[in-house]
Amino acid sequence: MKLYSILLLIAFSLFFSAPSAAAKLEPCMTEECKAYFKGFKKAAKNGHQKANVVLGNFYYYGYGVESNPRTALTYFKKAARGKITSAQYMAGLLYVSESDFQDVEEGIEYLEKAAENNHKTAKFMLGVVYLTDEYGVKNVKKADEYLASAYESRQINVPEIIDHIRKSTEITSDTFPMLAAQINMAPMLKSEEGESKWPDDDIERITISGPSLTNMLNSQLLSMRKPIKSLGTRFKGKSCAERIECKSTTADKLDDFSSVVILPGSFGIVSR
To answer: Which residue spans adopt a coiled-coil conformation according to this UniProt entry (predicted)?
Structure first.
């Protein structure tokens, strides 16, 4: 499978995830879905950054509102400014994968921010982007660095990339030194079909026994029922986030069921 195909598979399989829940977001224009959209729109206006992440997904999929990837990006960027890792990742991924407003350089910046915050799939995506020359930024050294980090984090899609690389070259201390070191420390297994795979206990899977999507949305809205109150800042040209002297309530303290994981559908639903 070409790396571009792998990227597209990843780019168009979005899921909400949580440690104990599994719920897939799909296009929906029922009155209930529209009501959820309005509820999160109100929460976002009340200062809840996590609501912007949810709205980004709603706009991307067309949940309670017409699908609009460009508007989805706007909401992910709003949440990314609030230092929400999943939003940084989503903004980066859309910039890399959406042809209508593709900006690889901008996408890499967002993905790097998410990777710095230990987002496993952001590390994986950076490895993929730097591994191929289709985006004009091919850099084997950087690909090695990010894929090694994704390997160490046991990111779910790494085995597929390992097999892809091995079709054209050996993974050695000369070709991919950091990745080779990780493989030597913790070798993968082989499936019956001869494909690389993680040992089952290394993969954190989410079962279908978790709360439904509506239960999760209701829970999230309940946590956002009160407006965020900021003390503001008297320093011109500086936001509260840029000054340690300024204190404000942030959405980072909320439970984050809305962290988005983007994975090939064939892998099922997993946590990031």
So the answer is: none
Maximum C-alpha span of the chain? 64
Radius of gyration of the chain from Cα atoms? 19
**pTM for the predicted model, two decimal places:** 0.77
Question: For residue 198, is it within any domain?
Answer: yes
- Dist. CA 110–CA 56, nearest whole Å: 15
Higher pLDDT, 259 or 160: 160
SS3 58: helix
Report how many helices (DSSP H) and strands (DSSP E) the chain contains, helices first: 11, 5
Q: What is the CATH number of the domain that holds 174?
A: 1.25.40.10
Give the tokens for residue 46: 């009340």
CA–CA–CA angle 267, 113, 98 (5° rounding): 60
- Lookup: tokens for 100: 């209508």
- CA angle 192/268/166 to nearest 5° reads 45
Task: Provide the percentage of residues in the chain whose pLDDT is more than 90.
Answer: 64
Range of the domain at 175: 3-203+212-223
Quote the Cα angle for 266-268-271, to 5°. 135
Number of structural domains (the chain) is: 1
Strands (E), 44-188: none
Residue 206 in tokens = 């989410």
Beta partners for residue 259, in sequence order:
none
